[in-house]
Amino acid sequence: MKVELIYEKSCPNIALARDQLLHAFVDAGVAAKWQEWEVSDPDAPSYIHGYGSPTILVNGHDVAGDESDKDDNCCRVYSSNGDSNDKGVPFLNDIVDSIRSATASEAGPKTRAASRWQMNSTLLPVVGTALLPKLACPACWPAYAGLLSSLGIGFIDYTPLLLPLTSLFLLITLIALFYRAKYRRGYQPFYLGVAASAAIVIGKFQYDNDTAMYVGLGLLILSSVWNTWPKSHIARGVCPACEPQAVTEGVNTKT
Fold it and tell me: Is 90 strand, coil or helix?
């Protein structure tokens, strides 16, 4: 994996871009290593010319995902669909996604899909416990016992365990939705997951309403898929109106 930081020496956002890049390596779980190019450096390769400052490339691809608008020696402005504020450096989740994608492509094309599957796998225990019937009718116990004994399994009244187990698995799923949500799809999937969890618990354990429970399960699955769905971004090329400011001297052009 080759990571490059392209900048113009008068750009005021160089230090912030380095800090953002370092945090991205940490979040991606990859050792930090990149190369820097100053656009006026005579030893810099020709392909770095035309990028606004700062620009981060991973394996030659702009992390912002849009390389159509280029202009030399200008401050670059970044904008995302999920953020109304323009920024002078690439978004952290864009850099992290690019690094993870590059490392995943080296490990195999199915790595990222497997990662999303692992995040969504927290739903399986919830679905399993929610679909288990409550053994609320003692008259039905002999029938259950006869069925289980035919399979070589002893009869156990698990009804008292259903609520705590379902609550525990729902809590694990909600933690997965909340953790680092701002770097994926924001906190909206988490809020949807909270509403879905309430529908499951109330529908199954308070009103014994299968419709509410199934609606809750559907919303919980939707929130998990939404949480792991790849995020689209818009990148604006340059901002000619930016006023360059002096930066600290002695910045290395290669790291």
Answer: coil
| Three-state DSSP state, 27 | helix
Of all residues in the chain, the percent with pLDDT exceeding 70 is 65
Q: Compute, in degrees rounded to 10, the torsion defined by CA atoms 227, 230, 232, 238.
A: 110
Report the alpha-carbon distance of residue 142 to residue 54 in Å, rounded.
72
Residue 77 CB neighbours (<10 A)? 18
Res. 58: pLDDT tops 90: yes
pTM greater than 0.85 (yes/no): no
The kind and range of the H/E element at 161 are: helix 159-178
Phi first, then psi: what are they for 104, rounded to 5°? Answer: -70, -40
Distance of CA 174 to the CA centre of its chain: 14
Q: Where are the alpha helices (DSSP H) in the chain?
A: 14-28, 92-107, 111-120, 123-131, 141-150, 159-178, 188-201, 210-228
Structure tokens at 142: 């002999």
Residue 172 to residue 160: CA distance in whole angstroms: 20
Identify the CA nearest to 249 among candidates 25, 6, 15: 15
Residue tagged 């230090």 (tokens): 15
Backbone phi, psi, residue 56, to 5°? -120, 125
Write down the pLDDT at residue 66: 64
Give which of 38, 47, 104, 25 is closest to 73, Cα–Cα: 38
Phi (first) and psi of residue 211, to 5 degrees: -60, -45
